Amino acid sequence: MSSAPRDYYTVLGVSRDVDAAGLKAAYRKLVIQYHPDRNPGDAEAEARFREATEAYTVLSDEERRKRYDRYGHAAFGEPGKSPFEGGDFGSVADMLEGLFGEVFRRRKKHLAKDLTYDLTVSFVEAALGAEKKIRVTRSVPCMSCRGTGAAPGSNPPPCAECKGTGETKLKRGFLSSTRPCVACGGKGVRILEPCPSCSGRGKEKREDELTVRIPPGVQDGAVRTVRGGGEIEPDSKGDLHVTVHIEKHPLFERDGADVRMTLPVSVPMAALGATVEVPTLEGKVQMKIPPGTQSGKVFRLRGRGIPVFGGAAKGDQLVTIQVEIPQGLGRKHRKLLEELEESLPADAHPVRAAYLDTLRKLGL
């Protein structure tokens, strides 16, 4: 941050004719972005927050704004000196509480932690969608003391350090923020008789069964969030973030919304034609292979792919034909193939005929 103060309107990102509502909206945005509670240990963010608060405090007051518009920073003392240093602007913390307190009061005293989980699903489950049951071990409030940490029936007195609020205030110059009380761990009471079930921690480990919904067409590495599936505090619940891993399939590969597979067929099947069973995501279907089908030919099975647009449509299944040449032929089979080759008409191999014609034209 430069030592020379920036123009207050520039700091807030507003025009000089901005009204009170626009001024407040601009400042609110910067408060949420740069407040020290949201950027612990970030000196740059703290400086930005201080600068924005200084600008808003001046411009939100009609008389101070008139003085600033006329004289600039000189209206409040020597150039480069913050008007807060004179102490004539009251409690900035009180102003923040009055204007934007709800932004930070939403934070729970005991914010429950989120958890993560790695879930492996099959190719078909990822393609068509599924509901998976998983078991998660997480911290929950102790059943005996209901999360207080105190022995059932005991009456722990309020914490003297925080006077029962569970929070302590920290002040750095004009900035004020709250933190959980160190003395009582944010509980607001002094535990004299710890709960014997949880040794005063107020928590216990529990294994719960949760349901994870896998939507059709989910991608590998996608994260599904189970709301409330994380750790549990007396006044809040964390979430469970599930990373989806998809197993490879021995036959299928994904291509966007389409599914690809290779179908091996024999030479007679390709030459004479055949009807074959083809596996799909939802079972087997019959597919006709016409006579004279070449290796590499791709057949499209409409609507046999992966659901898209919430299941309103589906991709296709693309079946690539691989003509398998027989190996390990005996004398009898070799003789039959030689006789076949000799007896075939000239137009039986049009692709090879075109290739040989090209070679002749090129003089090769």
What does this structure look like?
The chain has 364 residues and is of the alpha+beta class. Strand 10 (253-255) and strand 11 form a beta hairpin. The chain folds into 3 domains: 8-105, Helix Hairpins (Orthogonal Bundle); 115-156 and 191-246, HSP40/DNAj peptide-binding domain (Sandwich); 253-358, Urease metallochaperone UreE, N-terminal domain (HSP40/DNAj peptide-binding domain), CATH 2.60.260. The strands form 7 sheets. It has a 4-stranded mixed beta sheet. A 3-stranded mixed beta sheet has the order 1-9-6. It has a two-stranded antiparallel sheet with strand order 2-5. Helix content is 27%, strand content 27%.
Fold topology:
Layout: H1 8-12, H2 20-34, H3 43-59, H4 62-71, H5 92-105, E1 115-121, H6 123-128, E2 130-141, E3 167-172, E4 175-180, E5 203-214, E6 223-226, E7 232-233, E8 236-237, E9 240-246, E10 253-255, E11 258-266, H7 267-272, E12 274-280, E13 283-289, E14 298-301, E15 307-308, E16 313-314, E17 317-324, H8 331-343, H9 350-362
Parallel strand pairs: 1-9, 11-17
Antiparallel strand pairs: 2-5, 3-4, 6-9, 7-8, 10-11, 12-13, 14-17, 15-16
